[in-house]
Specification:
It is a single chain. This protein has three domains: 59 residues, Orthogonal Bundle (Arc Repressor Mutant, subunit A); 135 residues, ATPase, nucleotide binding domain (Nucleotidyltransferase, domain 5, 2-Layer Sandwich); 152 residues, ATPase, nucleotide binding domain (Nucleotidyltransferase, domain 5), CATH 3.30.420.40. Helix content is 40%, strand content 25%. The chain has a five-stranded mixed beta sheet with strand order 5-4-3-6-10, with helices on both faces. Strands 13-12-11-14-15 form a five-stranded mixed beta sheet, sandwiched between helices. A three-stranded antiparallel beta sheet has the order 7-8-9, with no helix packed on it. Helix 2 crosses helix 3 and helix 9 packs across helix 10. It is globular.
């Protein structure tokens, strides 16, 4: 019933009984439980009561229950609290150099950040019921198996907080963030441009992870077979040509790069053209293999989209040729760098909708 309210509400109790097939008595009992738990509210009068009389609308409430999204990335830690209406209530980011770092120290810092935003949320009357963590690496059973840029292997991160907890790859959660908070399209290929480059394939509203959870490693698609060595041990990977480090060169931030681009700096423009060319090569292979109708560029690619769009689109169009009539739509993410941490918070919301009794202790 909670999923019905979330998906198509608000509804009267009578309408909920009709839509779910439950008796009116059962619906009233369940609504009372959900009201007490703070996940729904009743307000206003809408048509749909008995004999056409106005009824009281039951709708999802964003006032008392929230979820926590966390992210460890290569150059920052992030946390956000999102209520059940998918409104961001708190957001914190700490810049950090996490390359080749001590996982115990970084996870302690993240735990402190999680406590900070949880306490701040509680002070506004919100109860945080669960958390999820986005990490730039492969995850299996709550264990971060490999994150080359962090220098982490086989790190158990599932014991981070004393809450119902989940952990997943950053690109997968960023794709879900785009699905739930951005375009809301059910099918697309999301490309997460950071220091590393990942991708998440969303099909029918679900992320495809592959047999071993390794699907989407777009950054290690080879674009120049005899190119420079990549951190993964291969040569000529996309990440070497279109990752954040390659784009910035000697610059210190993406904001500085955007400023240079806006002023027409030829070196900055050339860096984006090189990255866009390489990204177009890698995405051509992805399109041939996966046939997405829509490609969403996120992460640092979002603010750089005006300068990447042309080279990437031209590369896709030229290489796809006549095998495909119209290249997939290339669009920019509406949530940019927040995608992964929003996806992490959204993952717990989805768990709540699926198992409200378990998540809320009803």
């Amino acid at each position: 019933m909670l999923a019905t309210i979330h998906g198509s509400g608000p509804h009267t109790r009578a309408a909920l009984a009709e839509m779910t097939g439950l008796t009116k008595t059962t619906v009233s009992s369940l609504v009372a439980d959900l009201l007490e738990a703070g996940v729904v509210t009743e307000s206003g009068a809408v048509r749909g009561g008995e004999r056409g009389r106005p009824g009281v609308a039951v709708s999802l409430s964003g006032h008392r229950v929230a979820t926590l999204g966390l992210e460890v990335n290569i150059d920052y830690l992030a946390a956000c609290v999102v209520d059940l209406s998918r409104t961001v209530r708190l957001r914190r980011t700490r810049q950090a150099d996490n390359r080749n770092s001590d996982p115990v120290r970084i996870l302690e810092e993240l735990r402190d950040l999680a406590k900070e935003v949880t306490v701040a949320a509680e002070e506004t009357g919100l109860r945080v019921i669960g958390a999820a963590l986005a990490v730039p690496g492969t995850v299996e059973g709550g264990v971060l198996r490999s994150a080359p840029h962090l220098g982490w292997r086989d790190v158990r991160v599932a014991d981070l907080v004393e809450l119902p907890f989940a952990v997943d790859n950053e690109a997968n959660l960023a794709a879900l963030g785009e699905l739930w908070f951005g375009s809301r399209e059910p099918d697309f290929l999301y490309v997460s441009g950071e220091i590393g480059i990942g991708a998440g394939l969303v099909v029918g509203g679900t992320v495809f992870k592959g047999t071993f959870g390794l699907a989407g490693e777009l950054g290690h698609v080879v674009v120049v077979p005899d190119g420079p060595t990549c951190r993964c041990g291969g040569r000529g990977c996309l990440e070497v040509y279109a990752g954040q480090d390659a784009l910035l060169g000697e610059l210190t931030s993406v904001a500085e790069l955007v400023s240079r681009l806006e002023s027409g700096d030829p070196r900055a423009v050339a860096a984006c053209e090189r990255a866009g060319h390489a990204l177009g090569v890698a995405l051509t292979s992805a399109v041939h293999l996966l046939d997405p109708g829509r490609i969403v560029l996120g992460g640092v690619y979002a603010p750089l989209f005006p300068w990447l769009n042309g080279p990437v689109s031209e590369g896709l169009g030229a290489r796809l040729g006549q095998m495909r009539g119209t290249p997939p739509a290339l669009v920019v993410s509406g949530i940019g760098a927040d995608a992964a941490v929003l996806g992490a918070a959204g993952l717990i919301i989805q768990q709540l909708l699926a198992e409200p009794a378990q998540m809320l202790g009803l």
